[in-house]
Design a protein that fits this description.
The protein is α+β, with helices and mostly antiparallel strands and about 500 residues long. The radius of gyration is 25 Å and the shape is globular. It contains 14 helices and 24 strands.
């Protein structure tokens, strides 16, 4: 929401964002005596934006209601406390009003938000060159002219580039909607739980996605302590992923080879048309028929193709089928679980529809298969972040236990379970003061709780607030539940 500003004496509009940032810097520097002028109506609009009463707003800012009243009436101006206003009232300052979801409940601090399962709605589908058309089908949408690769099922972490760009909207069973970041600003403890809030701050430390992997992704890594879980919904015969070094790797020679190969790409990119670049991308990954669209193949082309083959040969190749569960987690030298080096997809193009459970955070591309146009790489950062010890396929495959509840992954980053409900056997669960996400991967399910009920079908997701407490999953369905941190 773009908060209105009053005009300055010169007739221009004051830049509230700049002034609030300046106020925050003053607080950090200890310069509390200086006041940053903020248009008087900003305080009133910030409070109205949160839906809080004057007393509740004052409590949230740790100031007196009288001070808030004087701000709103123009008798005083916010100074250092403007940083709190930025958090509560400016969370979506740069978003146009038309893009904001409606909230018709009494207020964002209405306890009902945290006492019912919340549907994750208007989930953004993100175009990716390696994507396809399965996500549009999964979500019941019309086909897209671009290949769709990812759906951001639950995102509420403004500090993360991806999550910040695609914030989630939640819907209460009674129909009210709210931006999840706004809801966290008003009810962080009730939504996240005390322990998650203390460890992570007022953000959702999960970034679950559905992926349509119809091509080969880059060889990539994440910072230590960030494992990933892949649950396969659908898979073609050639579907696969590459995961973990087969033998212990000496990183320096490979880093040097990738960097040296990058030096050949600018000239190729300049000389080849977009169609010829696409053909080269396919040929260097083993598609011999693409050679017909290329100029005469040179030693450079052959060297890049050989490097691609050798790079993928470093990793375990895991074939995929529907129902497979892969926990991308390998201990580092300190015993902490993190993601191994990986490349989702297959050069042969076998498609896989995957639910991915992960945390928000940066991705380092170690090698992008010499693809054109070029994308930024971070080979050094990737190789520093991942375990270099050898591994094998069995280190990553998970065989779910039979029964209604099966733990698929447990780590400091997150814990995940497969829930299987049948018509005569609902699954009873409890949030135990810890936020959860739920993703239906088969059938249709209903979530029942004291605060409301929510029905979900395959490909739909829900946020389960920490204070939801006891809930049940019924219907004929399979779902994946995820929670931040270690849950026993």
């Amino acid at each position: 929401m773009r908060l209105k500003t009053s005009k300055s004496p010169t007739g221009g509009h004051d830049d509230l964002g700049t002034k609030l940032l300046a106020s925050i810097r003053e607080m950090k520097a200890g310069s509390y005596g200086r006041k940053t002028e903020v248009p008087i109506n900003f305080a009133l609009e910030a409070r109205q934006r949160t839906g809080l009463t004057r007393n509740a707003f004052a409590k949230a800012l740790a100031i007196s209601p009288r001070t808030v009243q004087e701000w709103e009436q123009g008798r005083r101006e916010p100074s250092g406390a403007a940083s709190h206003l930025a958090r509560l009232g400016k969370a979506r300052y740069d978003a146009p009003l038309s893009s904001l979801p409606a909230c018709s409940m009494t207020a964002l601090n209405d306890p009902a938000w945290a006492q019912a399962p919340l549907a994750l709605v208007d989930v953004p589908l993100i175009p990716r060159p390696w994507g396809g058309d399965a996500l549009a089908t999964l979500k019941g949408q019309a086909p897209s002219p671009e290949p769709l690769g990812e759906s951001f099922e639950a995102a509420a972490d403004p500090s993360d580039e991806e999550a910040g760009a695609h914030p989630s909207t939640v819907a209460h069973p009674r129909g009210d909607r709210a931006r999840l970041t706004d809801l966290l600003a008003s009810q962080d403890v009730a939504i996240l739980g005390a322990e998650v809030l203390a460890n992570e701050g007022p953000r959702l430390p999960l970034l679950p996605k559905f992926l349509d992997v119809s091509g080969l992704l880059s060889v990539q890594a994440h910072p230590p302590g960030n494992p990933e879980l892949y649950v396969v919904l659908e898979a073609d015969a050639d579907a696969a992923l590459y995961l973990g070094f087969r033998e212990r790797l000496d990183p320096t020679p490979w880093q040097n080879r990738w960097i040296e190969a990058l030096g050949a790409l600018p000239a190729l990119e300049a000389d080849l048309s977009p169609d010829a670049q696409a053909a080269l991308n396919a040929w260097t990954l083993g598609n011999d028929t693409a050679a017909a669209a290329l100029p005469p193949i040179t030693d450079t082309h052959h060297a890049l193709r050989a490097l691609n083959e050798e790079t993928l040969g470093l990793l375990n190749r895991l074939s995929l089928k529907a129902g497979d569960v892969i926990f991308n987690a390998q201990p580092d030298s300190d015993g902490r679980l993190g993601a191994a080096i990986h490349a989702l997809g297959s050069p042969q193009g076998g498609r896989a529809l995957i639910l991915e459970i992960r945390r928000p955070g940066v991705t380092y591309r170690a090698w992008d298969h010499a693809r054109l146009p070029r994308r930024p790489l971070g080979a050094a950062a990737a190789l520093v972040s991942v375990p270099l010890d050898g591994s094998e396929e069995g280190d990553f495959r998970v065989i779910p236990e039979p029964g209604p509840v099966s733990c698929l992954a447990r780590s400091e980053a997150f814990t995940a379970w497969r829930l299987t409900a049948t018509g005569d056997a609902p699954v009873a669960r409890n949030t135990e003061d810890r936020v959860r996400t739920l993703h239906v991967i088969e059938g249709a399910a209903q979530i029942d709780s004291a605060g409301g009920a929510l029905r979900l079908t395959r490909g739909q997701s829900a946020l389960l607030p920490a204070r939801l407490g006891v809930w049940t999953l019924s219907g004929d369905a399979v779902a994946v539940e995820a929670a931040p941190g270690v849950v026993l």
